[in-house]
Write a structure and sequence with these properties.
Blueprint (H helix, E strand, L loop, with lengths): L21 H9 L6 H12 L5 H14 E4 L7 H12 L13 E4 L4 H8 L5 E6 L9 H13 L4 E5 L2 H5 L3 H15 L3 E5 L8 H13 L4 E3 L11 H18 L4 E3 L7 H15 L11 E3 L3 H13 L12
Parallel strand pairs: 1-2, 1-8, 2-3, 3-4, 4-5, 5-6, 6-7
Helix pairs in contact: 2-10, 3-11, 3-12, 4-5, 6-8, 9-10, 10-11
The protein binds glyceraldehyde-3-phosphate.
Glyceraldehyde-3-phosphate binds next to strand 8.
């Protein structure tokens, strides 16, 4: 339990029903307990200093690998680059079959088919950003078409961005309705809702956006696109973990969390796992409920894994580029 929120089940006023007016949504979101900024930063900093025993570290690194959404979201992405990333996702270290596969490969919608073909039968999911990633500035019809295309091309997971302009203008109903419409367009695909916390200005807004996305039906809430700084900071992830914890306590529905953006080192990954365990609880220590969105974390996890088992680092050219 953190000192930044009341006990599970008491953190929020009762959510309004699905058809609630913007005023009712506003009353709910602004009725949430305010975030104690200093307290949340101190708690995150304290948890970041926790050390992990060597045996537990080996297990934690493998768990972190299994939680990675291996990401490429560049304008210069090519089918060849995506195929190479998929090969790495399935077998991160071709010389060591004990290294687990990652959870998913995350790409732009036009490359979802390429990724789906490359990952067929591997158990690694295709995740695709959608809804005019990263800005989210497009008409709803375009966002829904973006989503449907990615799912039709093989994406089992959709990472949508919220309309931050509408959120910051206080039009919570519009943000809620876009999320529910995209969720419907997803069909069987899971929906991760990107809050882009670096643009939300306050921790209170991070808490409000978390509850809004959860209330609208998100399967996961995700911190960032990776295109805006700051991205996945520990205090922000902590606030989001509190929201899913308290929602689970109140309803029994377990929403996942995905910090993404700027997570580059094994130390970053393990700090996140400590946070998950201490704030949300061990029920989230699973790729079904926690992911690490990252374009260049996997190699460091592989290097630290090798160092733990052999006592030395592999050479700098041992792993293919992330
Ligand atoms: O969704 C994942 C992010 O785009 C990855 O960000 P990153 O390149 O900072 O790891």
């Amino acid at each position: 339990m953190t000192d930044t929120a009341p006990p599970p089940g008491t953190a929020a006023p009762s959510p309004p029903d699905a058809a609630a007016s913007n005023a009712a949504l506003r009353a709910f979101l602004h009725g949430l307990p305010g975030v104690d900024e200093v307290g949340v930063q101190a708690r995150a900093a304290d948890l970041a200093t926790r050390s992990i025993k060597t045996t537990a570290k080996a297990r934690a690194i493998d768990l972190a690998i299994r939680m990675v959404d291996l990401t490429t979201l560049e304008g210069a992405d090519t089918p060849g680059k995506v195929r190479a990333l998929c090969a790495k996702a399935v077998r991160p270290d071709p010389a060591d079959r004990s290294v687990p596969s990652v959870a998913a490969v995350c790409v732009y919608p036009d490359l979802a088919r390429t990724a789906a073909d490359a990952l067929a039968g591997s158990g690694v999911a295709v995740a695709s950003v959608a809804t005019a990633f990263p800005s989210g500035r497009a008409p709803l019809e375009a966002k829904l078409a973006d989503t449907r295309r990615a799912v039709a091309d093989g994406a089992a997971e959709i990472d949508m961005v919220i309309d931050r302009g509408a959120f910051l203008a206080g039009d919570y109903r519009a943000v809620h309705d876009q999320i529910t419409a995209v969720k419907e367009a997803c069909g069987p695909a899971h929906l991760k809702v990107i809050l882009e916390t670096g643009e939300l200005a306050t921790y209170d807004n991070v808490r409000r956006a978390s509850w809004l996305a959860i209330h609208a039906g998100a399967d996961f809430i995700k911190t960032s696109t990776g295109k805006v700084s700051p991205a996945a900071t520990l205090p922000v992830t902590l606030i989001m973990l509190e929201a899913v914890r308290d929602h689970h306590a109140a309803t029994g529905r377990r929403v996942g969390v995905k910090p993404a953006g700027g997570i580059r080192t094994t130390k970053d990954a393990l700090r996140n796992l400590v946070l998950v365990n201490e704030v949300a609880g061990p029920g989230w220590l699973d790729p079904a409920h926690f992911r690490l969105g990252a374009s260049s974390l996997l190699n460091d996890l592989l290097m630290q894994r090798t160092r733990l088992s052999t006592g030395s680092y592999p050479g700098p050219d041992y792993y293919t580029l992330d």
